[in-house]
Amino acid sequence: MIITETSLKDVYLIEPKVLGDHRGYFFESYRDDIVTEKIRKINWVQDNESLSTKSVLRGLHYQLPPFAQTKLVRIIKGKVLDVAVDIRKGSPNFGKHIVIELSDENKKQLFIPRGFAHGFVVLSDTAVFAYKVDNYYSKEADRSIRWNDPSIGVDWQVKLEDVQLSEKDIQAKFLKDSDLFDYTDNLYA
């Protein structure tokens, strides 16, 4: 398993070692000892999975403290463009984002810490998206930032007229109007 910090401090790309032959493949999708050594100790409490069709865009989502979540995301089937945005006021990377293509072929995973918004858009006909979180879902703490906020400037690589959104994401606030994190807060306390 190769763990590499991305251009956004505290966001990591995880690439498993895939063993394959004519029968198929095998890989360790998660190793607690390696993640603890390279990133931090995380107490995962929930695994989630979603199925989406082409051009479905989910995000940019996050939860406020005390329900903030670390996410470890990957694709089981299909291909998505995955996005993490630093929403910690005072961070040197505030409002900056990273875009990574995740697919069933490359088997890459993205580790997104607390203090970041997350979203993805489906590039294949369908995609099965799986992720671990270290805190339970709270409807009261759930927030969204506009996927097309010009201050963030994500290139989602899909035609705007094809994007499919939930009502929640249609009504999401712009970054400047959102409830955010403070860079100096210890979100893991």
Structure at a glance:
The chain is mainly beta and 189 residues long. It is built from two helices and 15 strands. A hairpin with a 2-residue loop joins β3 (19-21) and β4.
Q: How would you describe this protein?
A:
- The chain is mostly beta strands.
- 6% of the residues lie in helices and 41% in strands.
- It has helices at residues 32-38, 167-170, and strands at residues 2-5, 12-15, 19-21, 24-26, 46-53, 57-63, 71-77, 79-86, 88-89, 97-103, 109-112, 116-122, 126-133, 142-144, 181-182.
- The chain has a six-stranded antiparallel sheet with strand order 1-2-11-7-13-5, with no helix packed on it. It has a five-stranded antiparallel sheet with strand order 10-8-12-6-14, with no helix packed on it. A two-stranded antiparallel ribbon has the order 3-4.
- The longest helix has 7 residues, at 32-38.
- It is globular and about 55 Å long.
